Amino acid sequence: MSTGAQRLAHFAALTLCLAAIAWASPLPARVTDRDVYEATAAHGVVLDCSDIHCFRVMVPWLLSPLPGPSILKWKAYAVLSNAAAGLAVFAFALSLGLSRRAAWFASTGSAFGFGSLYTLHDVYSSDPLMYFLGPFLTNELMTGRVALAIAVGAAGVMAKEFAAAPFYLVTLESAIERRWKEAVRAFAAGNVVFIVWFVMTLTLMLRFNYTYAGSASADLGGGANLVGWLSRQSARGVAAAMFNEFGVLYVLAPVGLFLAPRRLKLLALASLPIAAFFGYVQQPDRALWNLHFLVLPMAALVLERAPALGSLTLAAFVVGNLRVGAQLPIASAGRLALAASVVLGVATVVAALRSPAS
Amino acid sequence: MSKALMLALAIETVILGALLTVAADQIAHTHVEKLGGVNIWGYRGSVLHQKRQNEVRIAVTGGDLAFGWGVAASETLAPSVRDLVRVRLDLPGRDARLVTGVTTAARGLAPKSYASWIDHYAYLRPDVICLVPDPISHVPGGPAFLPDRRSIVFRTFGYSPILPLVLQEKSTFAHSALLGLAGRLLDGTDGLLGDDSSEAGGVANIAAYTTAIDAAVRAGLRSATAGVVVVLAPANDNRAVMERLASTIVGERVRVVDLGADPRMLDAGLRLDGFNFSTGGHAVAAENVAPAVRELVEQAGLGAH
Questions:
Q1: pTM for this one?
Q2: What single string gives the DSSP state of each residue in B245-305?
Q3: Which one of A89, A340, B212, B276 has the largest count of C-beta atoms within 10 Å of its C-beta?
Q4: Inter-chain contact A188–B9, Cβ cutoff 8 Å?
């Protein structure tokens, strides 16, 4: 089977599985950002809008001309984006020098991780596209395809600000390595994307009276979204939300960091200020999943060293996420799976550290 | 490092500098627009939302007196008139009416510029325009920076920069030469291309004065759906002015309010500096103006049903 055919089969398999989950996932029984995205889809621009999601125009603009009910279009978009994210993480892992097995682990964890499955439950969001663009753009920049990265990034930044982050991630990583030419090239490319975002934002503000007044994210001096989120949650709620985000990956990824190739280590290091920034301006329990494409390859390096245990760990991780991410009505099984994934994860770490390959 | 890359970085720096300046200017506006300054489009208070179907919009325009130097945007004539009109329009059991007031006057605006100024803000779609001409004896004073009519940016896009002024004022308080230099640099760059010669000087005689007001009323009638209220300042020679404006003010959609007819308006205690109204002065003036505005609103069928 050729590489193209393999990728197509991989994409199709992920799409089918994610579509089944999206179909089974119930609609959120709370207020979401659906109204804002649907208004943008219906009107193009929502005059005098003070919601931050009004600035994220690309996805509703792309989906609005398509036929069919809104929920169907948005679910399809979330499924395809998350499947593409899985594929992009696979390619990214290979570019980092990981084995195909490790890449498979990382890809599966990406497609069926908490963030991805949560966007199959609450589909009115630009997040699924960002989950794809993170690994895709980073990989394109690492492999020297800067022009393509700029073009995709410039479009992506109109869906969400995070699309500019991979450019500065690669800038920092290259600068740490003192690969100055690459660093400057990625920086200049990132600036183009940032300028596109800036011009679009100012245009919406000046021409259509958009503001960030209704968004805590823009209140950088006042704690942004982080402080508000922390104040609304109990300590237990915060701990549960943060645990659910990465689950067993908290056990696996730190060990994987020591096993990781130098470039992945540097990327992880360079991602810290970006993670801190997005964790501050957004809800950290969801924002940090944007950097899942760095966490999963590290975890995969541990899983591949004990493949049988690793597969079981990943399976339990996925089942747990069906509950906490996709919100499927499997509370008992979900809790059990989450607990099992942590126990299996610890066992995998022990087995991996004892294996000769480590 | 290649020359192309360096050139790209240089161009990006310039573009980002310009964009950041605009963003900083917008932030500066949010700090001053509710106080003594103007918003990004050059009028007082926050930027108005798109006009709604059930909205009655009242604009107060003119020069120094209408601008309301020395009081906050919410203490000027427009919001005071709005409040008085709203209590009579937005009644229980009748269709909800949203009444908004906006001050589109400009500091130092000469009467001859009133008509074009009203045309400039026609996009706000006011229902009633209250034209408050400065008295004939008044010489428009001070530089034309509220809004900044010298600015090429304002003349071209209608965007009124305020960052240069804010930086220069901050430099005075903070004793910062750097802030002052940045403010003067921005002001100079924009002012180099701008021009305020068309606004220089006041009005020499009553004929020119009434011609200017006549033109402004006609401009107001083109913009406002309900009509125009001409508000003559106290201590003016208002009888002579009204005689000369007789043909203009007889129309059904024009009302005249002579503030000089209310003895309270002659109280020096209602002035901040002998000329500009205090908050109380605007409130008393609003009591005189609001009935005329209400009348036009009801006449146009914009009242509550």
A1: 0.89
A2: THHHHTSTTEEEEEGGGSGGGG-GGGBSSSSSB-HHHHHHHHHHHHHHHHHHHHHTT-S--
A3: A89
A4: yes
